[in-house]
Structure formats: structure tokens, C-alpha cells
Design brief:
The structure is a single chain. The chain is of the alpha/beta class. Strand 5, helix 5 and strand 6 form a beta-alpha-beta unit. The longest helix is centred in the C-terminal third of the chain and has 19 residues. Helix 1 runs parallel beside helix 6 and helix 2 packs across helix 6. It has a five-stranded mixed sheet, with helices on both faces. The protein contains seven helices and seven strands, in the order αβαβββααβαβααβ.
């Protein structure tokens, strides 16, 4: 999570706008589609989108693809590093709170971890979840997109079940994670409304990109 960039829009304004938009996009039915959201550490971007989609009634999981869970520390060269599965979000929250409550409140990490610990127990790594199956995998940057594709292509692929991998490049800050989560929610809503996702996804992406001025990269893999 990059907490050092200049913030041009107040956090409260972004949250208020995102919540208002999310309320308008909440589906009135339960979609059969299964979604995953993937970032690097399963900490900020994927978890914000996980919350948005889950609150809207979608079946969603979230993951990271990195070698470890890395979050800001007392300085740029001293991040807090955890192995996937070695610590829960609650344990991370308590550690950072004890280490420096003021620092981790100011940079937003305590807020992020507090949100996360009420969504699921701990960060999960995408590459270790080979048995999980999804209709759509959302990724949060091009590097993550490539890592997800590489992992899916290395699996057996004996079921001939398609999975649509869609990427939006989202900067790793709390504010842009919220904006990105709204975009993923809108895409999920549009996908849920089509009768045939495999046939309609190109039109969905084209419409979304035209309306939201966001570039979506898409590839289809098979389980």
C-alpha cells in the first residue's frame, strides 16, 4: 500500500461518492457468477473490492499473488512483511497498533486492517488455491494480470470451464482502491445482467470503457 502520494481529494468525499454510487448499483437478485479479486498482498485493493461486491450480494473471494504480504512500515526501506497464512488481519492490526498507533492511524493501515478482519481471517495467495473455480477474476494491475494468467495456464485445464480475467490498473492507495472497487462492482453488475457471459463480455467491456473512461484488459483461460 502506497501511503506517501499526495492526496488531491479528501478521503471522506471519495467514500461518500463511492457509497452513493454503490447503492445505485446494488443488484436486486443473487447472481450465479463466482468472482475473485486479486492484487499483490490481498490487503488494500482486492479487499476493498471484496467488500463492495460482497455487500452487493455477489459470491466473491480475494487473493494476492506476491511472494509475501508487504505493507508500509516506519520507513520506505523497512516495510512490515508477513508470510501468506502466517498471521491473521487481526494479529497484524494488533501488532501495528502496539508498534506505533499514531503512525499506522495516519497512514491508514489500521483502518485497512480493521476493515479486512471483518471480511475474512487472513490474506490468501492465489497460486495456492488451485481448487478454487471462478467465472471472473478481476486483477488490479498489469503485473498481477500476467501472474494470474501464467498460473491459470500452468494448471491442468481438464474441465474446459472458461474463466474471464479482467484487469483494471489501480494505484495502491486507499482512495484509488475505493474508486477501483466501484468500477469492479459496476462490471460485475453488467456481467450479472447478461444471459451469456462468454458471448457478451466483449460488448460489456466496450460499454463499460466508454461510460467510465477506464481501459479493461481481458483474456479467457480454462480450468
Amino acid at each position: 500500500v502506497n501511503s506517501g502520494e499526495h492526496k488531491t481529494t479528501p478521503w471522506t468525499d471519495i467514500m461518500a461518492e463511492a457509497e452513493a454510487k454503490k447503492a445505485k448499483q446494488t443488484p436486486s437478485f443473487v447472481s450465479p457468477l463466482k468472482f475473485a479479486v486479486v492484487c499483490s498482498s490481498n490487503m488494500n485493493r482486492s479487499m476493498e473490492a471484496h467488500k463492495f461486491l460482497s455487500d452487493a450480494g455477489f459470491d466473491v473471494q480475494s487473493y494476492g499473488t506476491g511472494s509475501c504480504v508487504k505493507i508500509p512500515g516506519p520507513s520506505a526501506d523497512k516495510p512490515n512483511v508477513f508470510d501468506f497464512g502466517a498471521a491473521t488481519y487481526d494479529e497484524m492490526f494488533k501488532k501495528l497498533e502496539a508498534d506505533n498507533h499514531d503512525l499506522y492511524t495516519a497512514n491508514g493501515m489500521l483502518s485497512i486492517l480493521d476493515r479486512n478482519r471483518f471480511i475474512k481471517p487472513f490474506p490468501e495467495k492465489f497460486q495456492t488455491k488451485a481448487m478454487d473455480r471462478f467465472d471472473v477474476v478481476f486483477t488490479c494491475e498489469s503485473r498481477i494480470f500476467d501472474e494470474v494468467l501464467r498460473d491459470l495456464e500452468e494448471r491442468d485445464g481438464d474441465l474446459s470451464q472458461p474463466v474471464h480475467v479482467c484487469n483494471l490498473d489501480i494505484r495502491d492507495t486507499p482512495e484509488t482502491a475505493t474508486q477501483g472497487a466501484f468500477h469492479f462492482l459496476k462490471l460485475a453488475q453488467m456481467m450479472a445482467e447478461t444471459d451469456d457471459l462468454d458471448d457478451g463480455i466483449d460488448d460489456i467491456i466496450q460499454t463499460f470503457s466508454a461510460e467510465d473512461h477506464e481501459q479493461v484488459t481481458h483474456s479467457t483461460c480454462f480450468y
